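Fold description:
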Amino acid sequence: MEKTFIMLKPDAIQRNLAGDIISRLEKKGLKLVAVKMLLLNNELAERHYEEHQGKPFFQGLVGFITSGPVIAMVWEGENAIQVARKMMGSTDPQKAEPGTIRGDYALFTGNNIVHGSDSPQSATREIEIFFAPSEIISYRKDLELWIYGGN
């Protein structure tokens, strides 16, 4: 099973959207295996967004993500990264399809509600930034037994 990192940004928390977004991911069939609410400091935010360091929008990203609480999560499922990215929609909410998280809730790129890993490499890196291995809970749902068989 593939794991992906998803973070609900401060605007999602401020607008009381956390429960709905989590519910959408659960209803799709992804499995929540780690979750925590936290306030990011500048160091952690810069580490998370290090690939954008030096770009004109970097300080804006760091400023926004540290402006309030976030919810960091690890989700698991078949093709979890691709499934979650499709559910989130385009990073530009003006281009995001209706029915996607950003298409339904986000107004502009700077405050686009949710972050999700874009590749297996970024998922591994982001999960390691926010979670110790002991914080990720491995468990099996009955539905998985029916679909995948095994013990």
Observations:
- The longest strand covers residues 31-38.
